[in-house]
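Support case: user asked for a sample of complex input and structure output to validate their parser. Sending the pair below.
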Amino acid sequence: MSAVHVAGVSKIFNQGTPKQVDALVDVNLTVEPGEFVSLIGPSGCGKSTLLRLIANLLEPTTGEVTVNGKTAAQSRLDQDYGMAFQQAGLFDWRSVAKNIELPLELKGWDTEKRAARAKEMLELVKLPEFADLMPWQLSGGMQQRIAIARALAAHPPLLLMDEPFGALDEMTREYMQGELLRICAETKTTVVFVTHSIPEAVYLSNRVVVMSPRPGRITEVINVNLGENRSEDTRAADNFFAGITAVREALRGTHADHANAGAIRGVEDR
Amino acid sequence: MSIALVAVLWELYKIVGPEKGGKLFGIAILPRSNDTAMPHIWEMLSRYAEPEMRSPNSKLIWFVVLKGAFYSFRLAFVGFVIGSTIGVALAALMTRFKTIERGLLPYLVISQTVPLIALAPLVVSWGGKLEIFGFTWPRWLSASVLGAFLAFFPIAVGTLRGLKSAPAASLELMDSYAASWKQTLFKLRFPAAIPYMVPAFKLGASGAVIGVVVAEISTGLKGGIGRLIIEYARQATGDPAKVFTAVFGAAGLGLAMAGLVALADVLLMRNRPKETTT
């Protein structure tokens, strides 16, 4: 059973009005359990829309989305996935531990069980001593690690991330990528990851899904396999650069119909 | 500090300002500065330590004013509680249903343009006829209702803005947890609304005081500070400082109510980042 199965999905906003936007057209994608899949493409290619369709925060206009063999709606109700956004989005009025407990609280867990799980998650993201601090007392990278801890608190098999490291500086970002790989390996979580950054997609993923805009669609799926034990050395390895080149060329292709193929708007080439 | 400044300005004007009041083309533009219209600050203050009436067993005026203020405070507090309950409930309802917001909000605005003085006798006469399950409507409750009438509006509007201030990403997060509307309301929307609700409740608190004082004056309810203001104002020619003692009492009353809200503010916001505290 695949972790995510997207079949013939289209999403049209404001259908039948002058403001109609074909956000996604005929998208097919399958993600296997334990896989790390990145969605990359210029602004308006529908990568965030696709993520929200998988999360059932949006309904597809046509086609079908299944998560863990269930309908997307059912898997949202069952909290089969956790989600992290570009903004950590921690609640200012809750301590770090209470923020992590939020999804458990909503599920109706009792206090003791919640506290134990929050402690476990804080160990996982290596911030055990910060439980009682308030979110605004933490740095951006720490906040994002807490957000990941919150997303994984209920031990969901699937993690959906929408540019989670987009607001972090380069150093923190690379550190967070390493941490994310470690956490996912430890928890055996499947990840669908939306990003603007080519190196980030290549470093993290088993597969990079390249998308193009107007109308949003998948143009290419690139297999990257940098092996299980990625480290800082991986970033200097030949197959890392080969992957980057492959993704970059695929992205150029998405702009073949534009006059200036060099300027890929919305994609950071770093 | 600012109080001292006002006091200095007051006394300064008494020195500089014309005794008979300023006139320009036969129209009075400046108030008279004689001791009847503008008694000295120290006269007002010393008046607190003097008896209310000339009769030998009359109480000192500070005691009378304080008692009146406390009576009105209780009425205003009841009004404030009624008003904030209604205001918050309306705000939650308007957040939940867009149609209610669009239908109700204009009427709320219109309701605040009705002069309170016109409304006061009406509420008293309605209240006087009410008797529900042996509970007879006391006269003072009409004053509280008028206080609530002034209090609920800023509270409803402020709370509505606050409830809507929750960031879209946080709402999406709650959606991804399949949280119910009620869970989202209490775990996200209300906590996010508090920085907006505190100033609204401060306005509501002073509104409740104004409503109660005006209701006391216009319905002739005895025992409160509003009644004292009216009584003392009638004696202003002979005893000009007296009315000011009651006016300051009313101002102090408003401050006490606002102080209660400020206290709640400190308690609720103690864990928030400093930028959002106002």
